[in-house]
Write a structure and sequence with these properties.
The complex is a heterodimer of chains A (803) and B (238).
Chain A lengths: L2 H12 L1 H38 L5 E9 L2 H6 L4 E7 L1 E7 L7 E9 L11 E5 L9 E5 H6 L7 E6 L2 E12 L20 E7 H8 L4 E9 L5 H11 L9 E2 L4 H42 L1 H10 L3 H41 L11 H27 L3 H5 L12 H4 L8 H10 L3 H39 L4 E10 L1 H7 L4 E16 L2 E10 L8 E2 L5 E2 L6 E4 H7 L6 E6 L11 E9 L6 E5 H12 L5 E9 L4 H9 L4 E6 H44 L1 H9 L4 H38 L2 H6 L8 H18 L1 H8 L3 H4 L6
Parallel strand pairs in A: 4-9, 6-8, 14-20, 17-19
Antiparallel strand pairs in A: 1-10, 1-11, 2-10, 3-4, 3-7, 5-8, 6-9, 7-8, 12-21, 12-22, 13-14, 13-18, 13-21, 15-16, 17-20, 18-19
Chain B lengths: L8 E12 L2 E13 L4 E5 L6 H9 L6 E6 L2 E2 L5 H10 L1 E4 L11 H9 L8 H7 L15 H13 L5 E5 L7 H18 L2 E6 L10 E6 L2 E7 L12
Parallel strand pairs in B: 3-8, 3-9, 6-7, 7-8
Antiparallel strand pairs in B: 1-2, 1-4, 4-5, 9-10
Classes of the chains: A alpha+beta (803), B alpha/beta (238).
């Protein structure tokens, strides 16, 4: 090792804690990028392989009913690779031996004696169904896991008056139900009350009285580029069965949710490391500026000895390179290690059939070079500054560093009258403007990171609060498999513990306006409903009337309508023999709700609109909502399940639990982001505070020598650091707010808005929490420097040259 | 010059040993020294002779390994950290070789910082005038010459009204002319205000202005001689 290299090692060792702190920031940034981006790539590959191996549909078309041979028409379309015609029926499911377990099940037919050519399943436990007539089913994994069902268990399926006992042959994962959601209008995975089951078509059809019929086509194409044309053709050849609009893979709910998830991960994997590496770069810059400044005589000596300018520049640039390379290498390894585990954990969490967790050398290389490159870039200016140092000048007495400074204490009201020892921290805040800017940037970035994490949580919680506490005012609700008469509501109202009950009618519909057609859920409510509060986007309570339909904000945006406009609406799943009639309704108002794809009408008006197509008798309801005395909730739940054709019974607490479950994952992610934000704040303030104190050891020693109390000096350092931190926080809080908005805007794509819309909400507590977290971190990060001040050798420090 | 019998500063068999890795360095060995009130004492010696160690011990920023450091009868070697801080605040004023001014404070503010430490400081303007800096009070240290910076340092020491001024190579960083002016100033402060001055230097020419000269070599006081005819600092040459 050359002596110059040895000097470099020793220089770095001398300031090892500061370089360790900045190295940790780079390491975390590179590791976060590597882990998150590799996880993104692994998940993307896992989904792609699962879709490929299980032959996931390129499109699907639903209709009321058609003979099984209808699938052949689609099969004959040029460009179609494979087609499955299948029957899908929602039924009541009972779990024998569990009295309160009456659930909604979706039975999907499987072809006889072969595996499906489209949307195959992946068996994780047990086996595939045997024979064409065995009364066996395959259960989707999350439903089976929630209810602890295993191969060999039985479930009862209730349809009309009939009941059939089915044996669980296996537990499966399905490419179309990675996220198990009922439909685009009901996107919450809720395994407690909804499960997907696969069954031989030859068993299902007689069970539901639809022998020889199918109601769905699922198909793959040979050339995805021709998909739109193939879909149009498929809809045309099936027109005799009044098909709904074809749904392409990218609009399939589970696919869409996964894709949203994936895009979010990709965004985070780039944005967070950007924060870290920017701050780390500025810190490296500050450390090297200081190193070059302190080593002016050394640089002068090196030049006097005959070292070339290039050699000296390279020597100081190497310091940045060594830090960058070492920490980036560590970050790359850490990222690699985390990525594999995180991919497998997440894939198992969301039940992905085929998991690919492999090293992504290109991502690792990119992470390494970005990390190392950031450091090198940060080192360029200080290193180049050495080239301008003239040997003769550098070897002479150094020039006093700080000249005229901004006397902040004179600008802040009241401070000018304080004792000088307390005014000094105000003066010192702006002593090294570039360093102060670096510190402020770091503290602001850390504040923004903490606030972004918490702000996203606030926004999600606010959306849930809107949904669960402001929109829904019932405690428990029941859904019927077939429409029931409204007189049931009066019966329910008479039960002990029932405070209030209301019937509701829910119908899947399609809205049309110009070329736009959009599927939505129409909810018919009792006029003046007490259990579902509608408010306009500015928060004004709204009462349903005959004026027309009330649209959720997403629906309004999709259709491009405003109150007063006319829209056409038709019902989905109509009887095949009916003409697809569209009714024109006026948009009465719009509401803002997290699930913004719902349209509200008075129940009677909704019934009246579609009474012919869906055979709805007068007073028909599809569910009952109940406000109940909490003490009677259990009893009411059992009684609701005993109502005719009662399927899923859901309590508000169930919903809260489910959301809590979903939020749990988000909270873990937020906690990680908070930890990263705190680490960032610690690293930046630790470095800046340490540099400040180190540089001022002569000053501090002088003050102590002339008789300033030690605690006063500590107080001065603390005040200075707190002032810097508070300015950083003051800049960071609005930046954080903007970042939350930016994140939400980026995450809330049009597709995401269809699933779950959030408004930007940052609670006041979040501002306080962020400021407090930063203050705590700053106080902690100055502890090493304070210990150093206490140990200062006054005799020695006062003899040092002030530079 | 009035010399009283009770010395203001007394060192009794004071030794100071530093450990530098494996090596023990004897900075001062069995030093005995008495400084009377109002005396101007120059401690002279080459680099590493222990002169600054004496100043640091008297100034309460270092503690002896053995012996007693008595100032006004009290052994400051036994003082707690807080008591030492009070002692430095009330009893001594330091003037350093490298001035040690706070660069973010103006000349006046540097002096004011010290003034805030004591209940009855001297009038700031008066002190500034005394050191000849009235015009430059609002300038920052980086805007002052070396001599002016040292004047600020002297004013900072004086403003607390300490009975003892401890000056460590106060002319070490200054050119001859500026150094001579500083010596004139220090001598005037000693004569006019009656303050005791302990001045450490390796410049033997400066010894000529002292009331007494203490010579050190390798941590040992080798000579302690009164100067019957101190030179007017204005006539100093080196």
């Amino acid at each position: 090792m050359s002596v110059l290299a040895l000097k470099l090692v020793r220089d770095l060792w001398q300031a090892r804690w500061q370089y360790l702190a900045v190295g940790t920031m780079i390491l975390l940034g590179v590791a976060f990028f590597g882990a998150a981006y590799m996880m993104y790539r692994n998940l993307e590959a896992s989904y792609a392989r699962s879709y490929d191996r299980l032959r996931f549909e390129h499109f699907g078309i639903a209709f009321y009913a058609a003979p099984e041979q209808a699938a052949d028409r689609v099969r004959r379309i040029p460009g179609v690779a494979a087609v499955e015609g299948r029957l899908v029926e929602d039924v009541i499911v009972e779990l024998p031996g569990r009295t309160t377990k009456t659930l909604m099940g979706r039975l999907i037919s499987l072809p006889a004696n072969r595996r499906p050519q489209v949307n195959d399943v992946f068996v994780t436990q047990g086996r595939y169904v045997r024979g064409r007539t065995a009364r066996e089913i395959l259960l989707e994994g999350s439903f089976a896991a929630y209810h602890r069902l295993r191969p060999g268990d039985v479930v009862d399926v209730v349809r009309g008056g009939g009941r059939a006992r089915l044996h669980v042959a296996g537990i499966v994962q399905s490419p179309e139900y990675v996220f198990v959601v009922r439909s685009k209008q009901d996107l919450m995975p809720f395994p407690e009350t909804f499960g997907v089951m696969f069954i031989s078509g030859d068993v299902l059809r007689p069970l539901v009285g639809k022998t020889g019929l199918i109601n769905e086509i699922r198909a793959t194409v040979t050339d995805p580029a021709r998909l739109p044309a193939v879909m149009r053709e498929a809809q045309r050849v099936l027109r005799a069965y009044r098909p709904e609009d074809p749904v392409a893979r990218r609009d399939q709910p589970s696919y869409q949710l996964l894709d949203q998830d994936l895009q979010g991960l990709r965004m985070y994997s780039v944005l967070f490391p950007f924060f870290f590496l920017s701050v780390a770069g500025l810190t490296v810059y500050t450390l090297l500026v200081r190193m070059v400044h302190l080593q002016r005589p050394v640089i002068g000596l090196l030049r006097a000895l005959g070292f070339t300018r290039h050699r000296v520049v390279a020597h100081y640039l190497a310091a940045a390179g060594v830090i960058g390379a070492m920490s980036s290498a560590g970050g790359t390894l850490l990222g690699y290690w985390v990525a594999g585990g995180a991919t497998r954990w997440y894939a198992s969490f969301i039940s992905v059939p085929y998991v690919i967790a492999v090293p992504r050398w290109d991502v690792m290389a990119a992470g390494f070079f970005i990390g190392a490159g950031t450091c090198l870039l940060a080192g360029v200016l200080p290193a180049r500054a050495t080239a301008r140092i003239r040997a003769a000048e550098a070897l002479r007495t150094p020039v006093l560093a700080a000249g005229r400074v901004v006397a902040l204490d004179r600008l802040v009201p009241g401070v000018g009258r304080m004792r000088l020892v307390w005014r000094l921290p105000f003066r010192n805040v702006l002593r090294h403007p570039r360093r102060t800017i670096s510190t402020l940037f770091g503290v602001s970035a850390a504040s923004a990171l903490i606030m972004t994490a918490q702000g996203l949580l606030d926004s999600a919680e606010a959306a849930l609060d809107t949904l669960l506490r402001q929109v829904f005012h019932d405690d428990i609700r029941v859904e019927f498999v077939r429409a029931q008469d409204r007189t049931l509501v009066s019966r329910v109202r008479s039960w002990p513990g029932v405070v209030w009950a209301e019937g509701a009618l829910e119908l899947p519909v399609e809205f049309h306006r110009g070329p736009v057609t959009y599927a939505a859920l129409a909810v018919g409510l009792e006029p003046g409903s007490q259990l579902q509060r509608l408010t306009t986007e500015d928060g004004t309570p709204l009462r349903l009337g005959d004026a027309g339909v009330v649209l959720g904000q997403t629906l309004r945006a999709k259709l491009g309508v405003e109150p007063g406009d006319l829209v056409e609406v038709s019902v989905l799943r109509r009887r095949a023999e009916d003409e697809p009639r569209r009714r024109t309704v006026r948009v009465a108002a719009t509401v803002w709700e997290p699930i913004g794809t719902i349209a509200y009408l008075p129940a009677d008006r909704l019934r009246q609109l579609f009474r012919r197509e869906v055979d709805l008798p007068k007073g028909a309801i599809s569910g009952i909502r109940v406000k109940a005395d909490p003490r009677h909730l259990g009893e009411i739940r059992v009684r609701l399940l005993q109502l005719p054709d009662a399927a899923a019974v859901t309590t508000l607490r169930d919903l809260q639990g489910m959301f809590e479950n979903l939020m749990g994952m988000m909270r873990r992610f937020i906690a990680l982001m908070l930890a990263f934000g705190m680490a960032l704040a610690f690293a930046i303030t630790f470095n800046m505070v340490t540099i400040n104190v180190l540089e001022r050891s002569n000053e501090v020693a002088t003050m102590r020598t002339i008789g300033v109390d030690g605690w006063v000096i500590l107080g001065m350092i603390t005040v200075e650091n707190l002032l810097t931190a508070l300015i950083g926080v003051a800049l960071g809080l609005p930046l954080g707010r903007l970042t939350v908005e930016g994140f939400l805007r980026a995450a809330q794509t049009e597709e995401q808005m269809e699933l779950f819309a959030m408004k930007v909400v940052v609670n006041p507590q979040t501002y306080v929490l962020t400021a407090t977290a930063i203050v705590i971190v700053v106080l902690l990060s100055q502890l090493p420097s304070i210990l150093q001040v206490n140990r200062l050798d006054l005799a020695r420090a006062t003899k040092e040259r002030v530079t | 010059m009035a010399v009283t019998t009770a010395p203001l500063v007394r060192l009794e068999r004071v030794s100071k040993t530093y450990r530098m890795g494996e090596v023990e360095v004897h900075a001062l060995r069995d030093a005995d020294l008495a400084v009377q009130r109002g005396e101007f004492v120059v401690i002279l010696g080459p680099s590493g002779s222990g002169k600054t160690t004496i100043l640091n011990l008297v100034g309460g920023i270092d503690t002896p390994s053995a012996g007693r450091v008595l100032v006004d009868g009290a052994d400051i070697a036994t003082f707690s950290d807080a008591a030492l801080t009070r002692y430095r605040r009330d009893t001594v004023g330091f003037v350093f070789q490298f001035f040690n001014l706070i660069p973010t404070l103006t000349a006046r503010e540097n002096i004011e910082l010290a003034a805030e430490l004591v209940p009855r400081p001297r009038n700031l303007d008066e002190v500034l005038e005394a050191v000849g800096l009235g015009e430059r009070a609002r300038h920052y240290p980086a805007e002052l010459s070396g001599g002016e910076q040292q004047r600020v340092a002297i004013a900072r020491a004086l403003v607390k009204n300490p009975p003892v001024l401890l000056c460590d190579e106060p002319t070490g960083e200054l050119d001859f002319e500026t150094g001579r002016r500083i010596m004139v100033l220090l001598r005037r402060i000693n004569r006019v205000e009656g303050r005791t001055v302990l001045l450490v230097t390796h410049n033997s020419a400066i010894a000529a202005v002292a009331d007494r000269v203490v010579r050190l070599r390798s941590g040992v006081i080798v000579a302690d001689q009164p100067n019957a005819a101190p030179l007017d600092p204005a006539d100093l040459q080196w």
